[in-house]
Amino acid sequence: MSHETTDIEYLFQDPKIHLDERVRDLVSRLTLEEKIESMLQYQPAIDRLGVAAYKHGTEAAHGIAWLGEATSFPQPVGLACTWDTELMRQIGSVIGDEARVYYRRDPKLNGLTLWAPTVDMERDPRWGRNEEAYGEDPYLTGELSKELVKGIQGDHPVYLKAVATLKHFLGNNNEVDRGSGSSSIDPRNLREYYLRAFEKPFTEGGAQSMMTSYNLINGTPATLYHGVNDIVRGEWGMDGFVVSDAGDVMGIANDHQYYDSHTPGVAESIRVGIDSITDDAELSKQAIREALAQGTLEEADLDRALFHTFRVRFRLGEFDPAADNPYALIGEEHLMTEQARELSLRAAREQVVLLKNERGLLPLDPAQCGKVAVIGTLGNEVYRDWYSGTLPYRVTPLEAICAKLESEDTKERVMYRDAKDRVVLTAAADGAKLTVDPSGEMRLSHEGEPTVLTMTDWGYGSVTLADEHLGAYMTSDEETLRVTAEEAYGWYVKEVFGLTPVEKGKCVWTTWNGKPVVSGAEGSLKVVETTSSVPNAVAGNASTVSTASGQGHATFQVETVSDGLA
Hints:
The chain has about 575 residues and is an alpha+beta fold. It is built from 14 helices and 26 strands. It has three domains: about 5-325, TIM Barrel; about 365-420, no CATH class; about 420-560, Trefoil (Acidic Fibroblast Growth Factor, subunit A), CATH 2.80.10.
């Protein structure tokens, strides 16, 4: 992707020219349609100028996510418990290195502009993303985020290893109606609390990117908030680019109903400071074209936005000879190194908060231990959060304890009880019991032995159901259920179900999104739409279930074969 100096055809390809002049030269050579196309997250290739395709946005909250195996660090809420700024810088450096590895593999899809760290304040434990940020203290969050940014971006005076995108600006710390609600922030809270966390990562960390949030700020959509330009650029001097959160520019009309159509929201977002739109590409481009035709958006507004995004791409070394850029040659040898593994282990140890250790009980001495009991639902589990990467290995607490004992009679010394119930599900109407075949197919039958499922309580009336013999979780789509999932994981965890009591001994079985499971013809099970009101703990509100002709039986019985807690 780099150009040798002998290949210079345009001014912007000459590394000897001042950076800003090079960026302006490139932008000036784009046609209006090329400028419109380049306003999106996926910037297209412009072959006639030798400009490659580029994607903004790779998740990296605690390691590179979704691209393949990568070093995984503790969740940010755990990293905050280390209070270790130097550790954060080293973690950031590993993340930047591994981003470079994946970029070299496929620069069109694996961009170097990383969506991390999350700088939101965590004032409410009910927020659904508390694992993603660093707590409720703006000073601690600012210091840790600042150092992570430094590690990700590197310390070269010209080139960036990768780019940190701070998110989500601003007041994005409630879950209910997050996409449509308004965060009311008075001037003192704004300055002393919410902005304080973001300030140092920009002014001292030099962060080159920022993502806006879904919510309104005092009644104004965050993508239209004056502080994006006035504060982040004007006061703090950020000279990188601003990106919208996924679907949020269209959300100005769709979710906030702030405008009647997409065009005014898109135009105002770009004027106020959004440089890269993460949204429906065709809708966004059409809105830009309409705004240009109406005169509510000028080509100069696009030039300004593209100056910011391309300036960052220049600093990543994309348009320069590889020999000039110390980060360009970072290769496979920098992926999941032994040093990175040791750093992850160090972070895992430092995040532990020991409140009390009377009589020096901990750490346990294997030589002094007789039998060891590991008890609890998480004793032999490793769950991934949404921003976890693909784990190259995993170690459960049970496995770690067994390894520490390092004796031939480990199985005799360690007793494990997961405290999970073992249950059988039965159709309440006719007593047919649930069975699972080796392929994961499910049916209700009066013949043979029923399948005993392991039930794990996920809180608030929701559970997971798994078949230990298959080593798989039950999961659902819009119409069917199967026992095929390797883990409970996803943007929506479709392995979660509700078994909500509706009368003595009977319950309604619902999917992750509140749709009832009913028995159909010849023992089949299916997911149906809803028509009459019943409680539904999974959806968090009243749901409905059909008992009309042809929809099957809607209630089930849960027989506890083994009481895990007992």
